[in-house]
Specification:
Blueprint (H helix, E strand, L loop, with lengths): L9 H9 L11 H23 L5 H4 L3 H24 L12 H21 L10 H22 L6 H23 L5 H21 L1 H4 L3
């Protein structure tokens, strides 16, 4: 049986389709991603706290309901955001798209709580200048942020902005908790200028470049 001149050569067609293909890495289990990040971050966090030193009134604050509530919120939105970032590294999030609401809700409660505190206590804005809190906060967040981004790049997210947002939240909670443990300044003006602002600026810049960082 003669081959029609207009019929494509199957072997050549297959070769053309396969041209440029290369082996790909297997995506990690999301929970392995999370366990590795949280384990390394705890070790790093402990070292930084040891170097910086604890606040002098920590024993008193350990019995302060407000202090404990804020610390718990920071831990909760940080860890759930890290879990969400791990799930986002899989294209379909393993069917757990709803989990994005958990860290987002916890962070919203955290923001609302601080807005209420600012309203009731007043916010006296200090002059912006480089102080130890700003330096310590950036020091606390630098390595965990780079590490979670590198881990996230091992996956193939289809939600780059959500991925970046969750990476930022996971590190913001750590930095917030670290500064609460080391800084004895509790007024909202100081917290906004030296605790919130540095993380917010870094986060905004990362979100602007989210689609370039987490591209296929």
């Amino acid at each position: 049986m003669s081959k029609d001149k207009n019929t494509p050569d199957i072997d050549n067609l297959i070769n053309d389709l396969c041209d440029g293909l290369a082996p790909t890495q297997k995506i990690w289990c999301p929970y392995k991603h999370f366990v590795l990040w949280i384990s390394v971050s705890i070790v790093y966090f402990s070292i930084v706290i040891f170097v910086v030193g604890l606040r002098h009134d920590l024993a008193y604050q350990a019995h302060n309901t407000i202090f404990l509530f804020e610390a718990a919120l920071g831990i909760l939105f940080s860890t759930t955001a890290a879990i969400c970032a791990s799930l986002l590294s899989v294209p379909d999030m393993r069917g757990k798209e709803w989990f994005r609401a958990v860290p987002t809700t916890l962070f919203s409660v955290f923001l609302l709580w601080n807005i209420i505190k600012g309203y009731t206590e007043g916010v006296e804005m200090p002059h912006l200048h480089w102080v130890d809190c700003m330096n310590n906060g950036l020091f606390m967040e630098a390595f965990p942020l780079v590490f979670i981004i590198l881990l996230s790049l091992r996956g193939k997210t289809t939600h780059p902005i959500w991925m970046t947002f969750m990476n930022i939240l996971s590190v913001a909670g750590i930095a917030w908790l670290g500064l609460r443990l080391t800084c004895s300044m509790d007024d909202m003006g100081h917290a906004f200028m030296y605790h919130f602002l540095p993380v917010s600026v870094v986060g905004a810049l990362l979100i602007l470049f989210a689609r370039r960082i987490f591209k296929w």
